[in-house]
Design goal:
With 313 residues, the protein is α/β, with parallel strands linked by helices. It has 3 domains: 126 residues, FAD/NAD(P)-binding domain, CATH 3.50.50.60; 113 residues, FAD/NAD(P)-binding domain, CATH 3.50.50.60; 67 residues, no CATH class. The chain is built from 6 helices and 26 strands. The protein has a 5-stranded parallel sheet with strand order 10-17-11-12-13. It has a 5-stranded mixed sheet with strand order 21-19-26-23-24. A 4-stranded parallel sheet has the order 3-2-1-7, with helices on one face. Helix 1 packs parallel to helix 2 and helix 1 runs parallel beside helix 6. The chain starts with a strand and ends with a strand.
Amino acid sequence: MDRFVIVGAGLSGLSLAKFLNGVLIEKGRVGGFFLDDDYPVRGIRGSRLVEELMGASVVRGAAFETSEDGVYVLSEEGSKFIEGFVIGANGFREKTAIELGIFGFRPSGIFPLYSAWELVNRGYGIGERVVIYGLNHYSLSLASKLRASVTFVRGSGSLIHDEGEAMDMGFDVIDAKVKWVEGRARLERLRTDEGELKADALVLAELSPWNPLNLEYKVGNSAMIFEDPSKIVEGAKILSESLLSRGKRVEVISDVPCFPERVSSEVGRVIVGVREGTKLRIGGREVVAEEPYPVVELPGGDRVRLEVIGCTE
């Protein structure tokens, strides 16, 4: 492979560009979410990692179509074709209100997580009584910057941060689902299956991987949701080693998120998206995750089965 082209210059894209000496394509801010993320995970801040990785070659523009030989990019100068092996690093997307089963009126005051993040980091407020649907690293980092009353609706939850951590920061946490929103010019209240909440802002923070170009190879939150920035960097390193390796490809069949899903036999390890204490069976071997997003070694073979069999907690 003569050249690697990486679509997206957030933390995962910057990491992969470093390991592969690749070219980045980015239409927005280089660094992405983690550029302004100062909320630590195990003592490590995403903003510090981004700062250390700055300096890669970046083509400004939006990738809109790929082929076997490269990617088409639209910029202020027009469209152009960039030749190379294309890898997606587009990050996450927020699940929509319809996906989450939220109905009712659609007043102002309802924000996807990243839109709220951008506004807050530019010095704007998003509301005085904020409900955040989805407790995870990204939403907790947002909440830490708000000068408002914050209530978390837990949603699918976090692999790293627990409810106690949020409550210690002065936030309320409820285990419910948002069902209905209503208001006149702006959001005034919402209903959950546990009751009604008064709110003037709702942040949608339930996340899914985003791969808009439907690329076979992807990294970071384009592949699976990572809440730990150091694991995003580690995942990029594993993928880079696998792409540069001449070993045969091992397919990982898993009932939980893992990355990469295909890895070189010479690399032979993947990151699994489970909590600390999760019991896993990998092939015929059983292991216990000693940390969130554990790196596990794979046995030999063309296909490896990975499954959750329990939890020590």
